[in-house]
Amino acid sequence: DSAQRKLFLDLNNTLQAVPLGKHRWTIAQDEINSLIAIHFADAGGGGESATRTTDPPPISDPIVVFTPGKITLAARSRRIPSADPRGGVISVVLRIHSTHAIDGSPAAVVHIDGLWLGNLPIPHSLAERRIQSAMPQLVPLIQRALSLQLGARRATTVMPEVQDTARLIAQGEPFPLAFKFDRRRVVIEDI
């Protein structure tokens, strides 16, 4: 409930209040993990309450871990050999740092800091190519998530900016931290 409230109500209220000055919005890894667990179970992602009518999903048991300047994403996959019937663990560590765009505006860059299949490190270049090639499949998922959170009309309005940002992130290029939300200029100062 806390994560849903923060994502669907508090974040929107914070964005609406931008003209009144600086605002801080935070969300904890435990809140994100709780939300992921509930949504993943509802989508047939391996939770006890999931009812499967099709093939099992390619991943299960996703988790997010925040450390200073880094985000670790991990999940189990049946495609990764393991003694566990749910499959082995794949994990990626993303490093985020603030920078500036060519025009001097605030930006951020996401780099892969580590990638593992179980305990086996994998070259970052393999992941970077896979992420870039997966973008055509990810864009409709991003649009659907935005439609659920913002409504179809607003999602259609922000989608071109979101697509550009997703493409830049996938390519390891700086992405803008300044954007418009309901005709208001929003600048993210720290992630």
Provide a compact summary of the structure.
The protein is α+β, with helices and mostly antiparallel strands. It has helices at 2-16, 29-42, 124-150, 152-170, and strands at residues 59-67, 70-77, 88-100, 106-117, 120-121, 175-176, 178-181, 184-187.
Please bin the fraction of helical residues: 25-40%
Overall geometric form: globular
Order of helices and strands: HHEEEEEHHEEE
Largest sheet: 6 strands, antiparallel
List the uncertain runs: 45-52
Q: Determine the structural class based on helices, strands and strand pairing.
A: alpha+beta
What is the β-strand count?
A: 8
How many alpha or pi helices?
Answer: 4
Report the mean per-residue pLDDT as an integer. 80
Cα distance, first to last residue?
23 Å
Alpha-carbon Rg, integer: 18 Å
Strand content: 25-35%
What's the arrangement of secondary structure elements?
Blueprint: H1 2-16, H2 29-42, E1 59-67, E2 70-77, E3 88-100, E4 106-117, E5 120-121, H3 124-150, H4 152-170, E6 175-176, E7 178-181, E8 184-187
Antiparallel strand pairs: 1-2, 2-3, 3-4, 4-5, 4-6, 7-8
Give a description of the structure.
It is a single chain. The chain has 191 residues and is α+β, with helices and mostly antiparallel strands. The chain is 39% helix and 28% strand. The chain contains four helices and eight strands; from the N terminus they run H-H-E-E-E-E-E-H-H-E-E-E. The strands form two sheets. Strands 1, 2, 3, 4, 5 and 6 form a six-stranded antiparallel beta sheet that branches. Helix 3 (124-150) runs antiparallel to helix 4 (152-170). The radius of gyration is 18 Å and the shape is globular. Residues 45-52 have low confidence and may be disordered.
